[in-house]
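Open question from group meeting: does this chain pack into something compact, or does most of it stay loose? Before anyone orders reagents, we agreed to write out a predicted structure and look at it together. Recording both the input and the output here so the notebook holds the full record.
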Amino acid sequence: EEALAKALSILHQVPYADPARLEKIDPSILSLVSAGFAREHRLVPFDRDRTGVYVAMMDPADPVPLEALRKTLGCEVRPRVAVELRLLYALHRFYRVPLLPRFSHLPGFFDAQRGKARGAKRDIQRLLTHWEALTRERRSDQASAGPEADVTFLQPRDREAVCRALVGFAASRVKRAALFAVREEAASGWLAAVPGLDPEAFAILDVPLAAPSILRDVMQRRQFYRGAFLPLPENLRLAAALGGPPPQEALAFPLLVRDKVVAILYGDDGPQNLLLGGFDELMKVAMKAAMALQILVLQQKIRNL
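Structure tokens returned:
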């Protein structure tokens, strides 16, 4: 749980609420926020000092509850991100907020798991390392890095939304962008942003990974590729499925979740065209998308414990 909280902290760029601090909260601090307000905005106050009140939240970037609390309390309110299940448990425990049936196991879960949760640490440490490196390398003009996509990656709700945000951003950098879902023996058409393309026709495209192609090469190498679009049979079939003759150049990027390639992002600038410009920003956004997918997997893993 703490490892996931650290990952959310890096994603939101806000400190996380230490799970241990949410185990026991002074009633005088809890009384600062009404049960109705806490339930509506999914937040729990857990500490205070001379500088203000500390509040655990699922969405620490939401200005509405923060401004309301600042006006009501007359002091600074410092948001801290918290794991969803921990926050739901705290709301139930301290404010008597009813749990939905699917979360009815939380009290027993946290009682049993107190001090034991270690399972996700190894998986998420790699994610933390990658994200921190990505943050250090970020360009000063961060606004150009796809703010709408970043919002989706910071608060991933499902993989469809994450992947649509990725393809949408890719479409702003290349004329034809497509995402393939990687399965055992084939890469299947999933999402595409290509003018005039029939989505249903693209969805039935399967590129066998036993035959040479740009997709197989990227899956095996597990690295970004930008270069010549070779006239291989499966490459030509891919280009035809995207609605035209093959390009001269193409790019592809593997999305890895827990060291497994789960999808491949493909892009080109249309029939017979070369790729223009650099794609560092697209690579960073693709890495963020892969991390968001991994966060979803880890969240589900915690729910299933």
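Observations to bring back to the group:
Confidence is low (pLDDT under 50) at residues 138-145.
DSSP finds 13 helices and nine strands in the chain.
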